[in-house]
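hey so u asked for the seq, here:
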Amino acid sequence: MKKEPIDQVFKRLEGRLDTAAPSADHKANFLAKLQAQATEDIPAKDTKTIQWMRPLFIAASVILLAGLMFTQFNATPKAKELADVSPEMENTQDFFTKTIERELFEIKENMNPENQAMVMDAIKQLEILEKNYDDLKKDLSESGEDKRVIYAMIDNFQNRIDLLQHVVEQMDAIKELNAIEKAVTL
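ran it, structure tokens below
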């Protein structure tokens, strides 16, 4: 397409161009038509939906963030057991656990009114030793299997067994004493 100089374009279109001035209210009519067209094209929004959904979205976001922060900050590392160190330590833990359970069962079976206070005191001491053991499990997790912690855990098991054996011996001594008293009184 060949470009014409602008003067020639105006000369060629001289009689065909609308050169009349617009009316005085032309701007107002144009704006009214534009406004009418804009309201027809945009659908009316349901303001009720937006009014309750925005707070709902905000609340859900806050709850989600709070949940994530709670799980992140309260995630405590799992306490390691003695059995987690090695297979030998697992056997050791099993041995001590079974021995303690067996001794405790025997003590509870032979408990009577004469030795009940002693048995209850031993159970309280066992609970203290178990709490100490729980602390040692946490220490084992944090220390990376420090041998001193492992030895302390084994020592804790031995202390529990010694406590229970001492109670069994005391219960046996009380039985013998009662048997001697019965024999003497007969």
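The chain has a mean pLDDT of 82. The two ends are 141 Å apart (CA to CA).
lmk if thats what u needed
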